[in-house]
Design goal:
Layout lengths: L7 E10 L2 E11 L4 E6 L5 H8 L7 E6 L2 E2 L5 H9 L1 E4 L11 H12 L4 H14 L15 H13 L5 E5 L7 H18 L2 E5 L3 H7 L2 E6 L2 E6 L1 H6 L3 H8 L14 H9 L6
Helix pairs in contact: 3-4, 3-5, 4-5, 6-7
Bound molecules: adenosine-5'-diphosphate and magnesium ion (MG).
Length: 273
């Protein structure tokens, strides 16, 4: 364990939408060069966590600090600088459909750097090579398979040489072979670029391959965050159920409705609509 300051520091982060508490006092630290995998069921706030890290959502309480800077306290320029350090790989790739692969990867380079066209051509080629997509510059997203789209999304995310990479469910919807390929590319990027990363995934196999530490979010709280071996041995029944993928156990049971909501049903059911 090294003792340098964390690159990503999530401190007592809470976020609700109306009465729905999504994240509750979440604490997570990711150190330089470390790969953190975040597991959790659908709708447990994993994307909300990433959006807080990117400064796309503001916490209700607590904060996220990136390289020591508290994200929600930054002005426009400060936020822009922080976002430049982060490469975001969105769920389902989110490529611009009307643009070619080249234009998708070149987009941020054209916008945010003073690179010449020749330099951009070289950088796009380099990024596509890193994700095994060399020579696909002229294709449109509609001509790509799901796995290829994700890889182009990765190439776009690394174009500006970010120090941090965030992957939001990079393998959801892919077949097991492509899931493996994507996992290996994430590992390659970690080793070649030395980036600090958070990967959100449902895929346990790639989680164990790419993680230095694994966190599990359950009912808005981070209930475990530890190296893969310790995570496997974690006695928490929720962790064990997640590892087994069982339908029985605490993990898939709905939480009891809050008492306040029940009381309101009695007085005025329309308030809940
Ligand atoms: N901008 C928003 N406004 C209202 N509710 C939201 C918003 N973003 C997310 N949510 C809700 O927060 C919960 C967690 O969402 P999300 O982080 O996308 O889940 P997941 O863990 O599947 O990524 C969901 O119930 C979702 O409906
Ligand atoms: Mg999500």
């Amino acid at each position: 364990m090294n003792d340098t300051a964390p690159v990503i520091d999530v401190v007592n982060l809470s976020k609700a939408f109306g009465p729905k508490v999504v994240l509750s006092n979440v604490n997570l630290q990711v150190r330089e060069g470390e790969s953190l995998v975040v597991l959790g069921g659908s709708g447990t706030g994993k994307t909300v966590l990433l959006r807080n890290i990117m400064g796309l959502l503001e916490p209700d309480s607590g904060h996220v600090a990136i390289e020591g800077k508290i994200v929600h306290q930054l002005d426009r320029e400060g936020l822009f600088e922080v976002r430049k350090a982060i490469g975001m790989c969105f769920q389902m790739a989110a490529l611009f459909d009307s643009m070619t692969v080249f234009e998708n990867v070149a987009f941020a380079l054209r916008r945010h750097t003073g690179m010449t066209e020749a330099e951009i051509v070289d950088r796009v080629d380099e990024c596509l090579s890193m994700v095994g997509m060399k020579g696909t510059q002229a294709l449109k997203p509609a001509e790509l398979s799901g796995g290829m789209k994700r890889r182009v999304g990765f190439a776009r995310a690394i174009a500006l040489k970010p120090r941090i990479l965030l992957f939001d469910e990079p393998t959801t919807g892919l077949d097991p072979v492509m899931t493996d390929v994507i996992g290996r590319i994430i590992l390659d990027l970690k080793h070649e670029l030395g980036v600090t990363s958070i990967t959100i995934t449902h895929d346990l196999k790639s989680a164990f391959e790419i993680a230095d530490r694994i966190a599990l979010i359950f009912r808005g709280e981070c209930i475990a965050c530890e190296p893969p071996d310790a995570f496997k041995q974690n006695p928490n029944p929720v962790v064990q159920q997640f590892l087994r993928g069982d339908a029985d156990g605490p993990f898939l049971q709905d939480p009891p409705p809050p008492k306040r909501a029940l009381a309101r049903v009695v007085h005025n059911p329309l308030q809940l609509l």
